[in-house]
Specification:
46% helix; 4-stranded mixed sheet; single chain
Length: 128
Amino acid sequence: MKNKTNPDLKSSCENLTVMYDGACPLCRREIGIYQSLSPLEPVSWLDVSAKNENMSPEEQARFMARFHVRTKDGHLLSGAAAFVALWLTMPGWRWLGRFGQLPGMTELMEVFYNGFLRIRPSIQKLFK
């Protein structure tokens, strides 16, 4: 069941909440792929680039700088750990989520994610 609503940050965590930078063309494209799937559990999508009265400018900048998800139990994950949590709910991606759960893999994926973040501005230009 797809849920494309934009919950605010202070709402209860009934679903996995994906916080993504909707101002980033690369991010929008990737999130669109996930949104086209039927997740194994409800997922809420929050475009953190949109104005949200429940989010300070500092929070917004932090959430736009890295990929984040809030789990159903309220834990905030970022980077590779956030991707692993999302992939575990997505058909066709669960294998990658399970791979990320192997000892040391999330940490290794985080190294690659941090490298990607350094070149992300250049890649974004290709998707505009």
